[in-house]
Amino acid sequence: MQIQVVKSKIHRVKVTGADLNYIGSITIDEALMEASNIIEGEKVSIVNINNGERFETYVIKGARQSGEITLNGPAARKVQPGDIIIIIAYATLEFEAAKSFTPWLVFPDETTNLLK
């Protein structure tokens, strides 16, 4: 049996931009991507603390140490710059392997989105 578990989480980052006229995705600071073990093109779930929206998109790499968290395309309608979001990636594992799996959890500075 396989189950889905949290693989990676970037907990409570501030949205720095919303670009409706982009083809879609979320742009994430490369340093946050590396710390959370999220790769470019990976599917992620977004949870907006401010308005309760939950949606999925894919990741594109932002400039390292920029603190950038930009929602692009249609997802831009689900956030406002300044909103606090959680970014979650999941993995499918065998049940027994999932019991001992340790996810990558990142808790950046909420005002700058930089690693503490």
Task: Tell me about this structure.
The protein is mostly beta strands. The protein has one domain (2-96): Beta Barrel (Barwin-like endoglucanases), CATH 2.40.40.20. The protein contains two helices and eight strands, in the order βββαββββαβ. The longest helix has 7 residues, at 30-36. The model has no long low-confidence stretch (mean pLDDT 97). Pathway: Cofactor biosynthesis; (R)-pantothenate biosynthesis; beta-alanine from L-aspartate: step 1/1. It is found in: Cytoplasm. This is Aspartate 1-decarboxylase.
List its traits.
116 residues, mainly beta, Barwin-like endoglucanases, eight-stranded mixed sheet
Please work out how many helical segments DSSP would assign: 2
- The class by helix and strand makeup works out as mainly beta
- The CATH topology is Barwin-like endoglucanases
Strand order of the largest sheet: 2-6-3-5-4-7-1-8
Distance between the termini: 38 Å
Tell me the total number of β-strands: 8
Using only C-alpha atoms, the radius of gyration works out to 14 Å
The CATH first-level class comes to Mainly Beta
CATH architecture: Beta Barrel
- Helix content bin: 10-25%
Give the overall pLDDT as a whole number: 97
Any idea how many domains?
Answer: 1
Note poorly predicted spans.
none
Order of helices and strands: EEEHEEEEHE
**Major β-sheet, in short?**
8 strands, mixed
Overall geometry: globular
The share of residues in extended strands comes to over 45%
